Amino acid sequence: MNLHPMKLVTIICEAVLEERIVEVLHECGAHGHTAFDVRGSGRQGARSADLVESSNVQIEVIAKPAVAENLLQRLHLNFFQDYAMVAYESEVQVMRPEKF
Amino acid sequence: MDLLTAIQSNLLSPAVLFFLLGVFAAVSKSDLKFPDSLYTTLTIYLLTAIGFKGGVAIHEAGIGAVWLPALAAMALGGIIPVWTYPMLRKLGKFSVADAGAIAAHYGSVSAVTFIAATNFLKSIHEPFESYASAFLAVMESPAIIVGVMLGKGALGGGKFSLSDAGVRHALRDAVLGKGVLLLIGAMVIGSLCGKRGMASVEGFFVTPFQGVLALFLLEMGMVAGRRLGDLKKVGIFLLVFGVTAPLVHGLAGVLLGGWVGLSVGGATLLGVLAASASYIAAPAAVRLSVPEANPTYSLTAALAITFPFNISLGIPLFFEAAKLLNA
Fold first, then answer.
1. Which of A76, B112, B171, B275 shows the greatest Cβ crowding within 10 Å of its Cβ?
2. Closest residue of A to B167, CA-based?
3. A100 within a domain of the structure (yes/no)
């Protein structure tokens, strides 16, 4: 089986940001994403998920290394200071690199 | 009926009692939890139902009777942040962002508080203009727009700009958010269909309404109850503000209602709307556009102080005030 290395960027943040993050990731050159509702707690307190304001969303995107780095930079620049957000990249192997 | 009887009859309504049950469930850390989608479903149901009913009432009364009080309601919503903002800045010592955020929440409105007030009026057989839900629809957005501008420092040559992606998203949400869209959409549909349309949907939108409202308030009680712990974090000023702001705004609404020719019931409703603080539309819009503001302040004040105050004491108080002032 022929596998190709790619980056998986995972972003966990306030649910109100979902639309804006999706905009940013398309601007950075990513071709798709998966989002799901999550809950948890962190440095800025518990996120009880009972109102949009206190709900969290996890957004995952697989992209080429340059796109992933660009995306993390943009998140750092635009969101890290003011919002509850965790973002990281990890290595993944995909079968059809042209999809990403 | 005197004030005490009014308060008593309000406190013993299913809506208020279910709210208390919800608070108790949250405080006692019960495992009771509504599925996420149920909260949204109940919100959609309530907004559609009152929008439609209001639309049918507009059909009956004619738009000529509605526009003046609706315009007054809209103006009141937009003006409340203009004077709450300097109060919060000077007396409360809040930052520009926090003061703007809190002002936006208090100028905007709470649909459930409004519904609870219409229930109260019905339970004491006090007539009111059924098209009053139009006031609810037009009061949601103006305050959010004004509050966001203030919070972005529009007064001090700050950084309010439409090119800010957060501001753009927030303004679109404020003007076309699900609350406003459903209310105004259902209202237009109701006003086109009139009484005949009402007859066909009555079984769904009218008969089960009280039960749905009771369930929704149970959930609201839990949402508010989970935030009671935050009361310690917001400071004494906000605790006082959370009760005095609705009192002052409520009286202003009652007076304005009488002045534009509303009945005692209608003036009560305008008072309740002015007194209420938003916890759905405003938090999301403000979070997107004024991220420096601490949401704990505005949300705790709106949900854990002002909302319980209004649905327990505020509603009967504004009714008595409307009777006195507009007699």
1. B275
2. A20
3. no
